[in-house]
Design brief:
mainly alpha, two-stranded antiparallel ribbon, 2 strands, 72% helix, 1% strand
Length: 337
């Protein structure tokens, strides 16, 4: 903005803005500073606190770090490995499926018939009922699919009412309204029956299904902002739909893709409830490790501070590295015209 513009801020307003930003920065960064400081304190310094400044209020000590990386080293390593594998795998899988689904919802017209959808749900419920009464689940699934195929071929043409792309997108995002605690018991029983309980693959599948609606909803907005004319020009030149998607659409949507990836990664990285029910020792993640450190002896804040720092610092560094893309991705679709 030009300095002679009547809308240019005055020097006093600039000073006030900078002071407000500094104050807000202190509020945001203070919890991280407090974690770092607490991880360097002896237990007596924590209980006699608050003590803020190392070498002024207390003498720093590395005993908490030695204990975490020494005594708790194997448990921390296992939990950290599970967290990295589960979060990255589920985030990448969610981004892969969500990107293609969102692109399909913005470029193709879908008219699924309500009758066929209800028939499919009814056949799935029939398969579940047959499995409960003792029929092998493989046979029950085959019976349900065969019945649905017959219904689609015979009665499918009689169904008139259909849904649209907006209805599909709204249905997907509406799944996030459902509290996770409602489905956690059925998921526990399901994974127990198929032998996936306390395995990382169970968390990966669950996190992917949970975060997929968010990825589809966000990427749908990003793809909507990409002009169709670019793809039409490429089609005239003979490019296939996959070539257009990979060479034109994805590069233009990269800021939104990275912002969506970081969001679903954080959701999977910090998830606690699902991991609490579906994992024990083998698939334990870092949020469970932090919770487990609140034992019967009381909360040992000095140890917990070390574990929490180990847990959050990679995500913070990743956000700093991808800051340029995140800023662009968050602004996509903010201005339309």
């Amino acid at each position: 903005m030009r300095q002679d513009s009547p809308f240019a801020p005055s020097p006093l307003s600039k000073v006030f803005s900078y002071l407000a930003l500094v104050a807000w920065g202190v509020v945001v960064l203070f919890p991280i500073y407090w974690l770092a400081v607490t991880s360097l304190k002896e237990p007596i310094d924590v209980f006699e606190g608050p003590k803020y400044l190392p070498y002024v209020d207390f003498t720093p000590s590395g005993h908490a770090w030695k204990y975490v990386f020494g005594t708790l080293g194997p448990s921390i390593a296992n939990a950290y490995r599970n967290t990295v594998v589960v979060a990255l795998a589920s985030a990448l899988l969610t981004l892969f499926l969500g990107t293609m689904a969102a692109y399909g919802l913005t470029r193709f017209v879908y008219r699924p018939r309500v009758g066929l959808i209800l028939s499919f749900i009814g056949c799935i419920l029939l398969a579940v009922f047959l499995a409960v009464v003792g029929v092998p689940w493989q046979l029950a699934l085959v019976i349900a699919l065969a019945l649905f195929f017959l219904i689609a071929q015979t009665l499918g043409k009689r169904f008139r009412r259909a849904l649209g792309n907006s209805d599909i997108a709204f249905w997907m995002i509406s799944n996030r309204i459902l509290p996770p605690v409602v489905v956690i018991i059925p998921l526990y029983v399901l994974y127990q029956q198929i032998g996936l309980l306390d395995k990382p693959i169970a968390l990966i599948v669950t996190y992917t299904a949970t975060n997929l609606p968010i990825a589809v909803w966000l990427m749908r907005d990003y793809f909507t902002g990409i002009p169709h004319e670019l793809e039409e020009c490429a089609q005239i030149d003979g490019a296939s739909r996959f070539r257009i998607f990979g060479s034109i659409v994805l590069p233009l949507a990269m800021p939104g893709i990275i912002a969506t990836f970081l969001l679903v990664l954080v959701f999977a990285w910090n998830e606690y409830l699902v991991a609490l029910f579906l994992s024990k020792a083998n698939a334990q993640t870092m949020p469970l490790m932090v919770s487990a450190m609140s034992g019967t002896r009381g909360t040992e804040w000095w140890y917990m501070s070390v574990v929490i720092l180990i847990m959050i610092l990679p995500v913070i560094f990743l956000a700093i590295l991808l800051e340029r893309y995140i800023q662009r991705g968050l602004l996509v679709g903010a201005v339309k015209g």
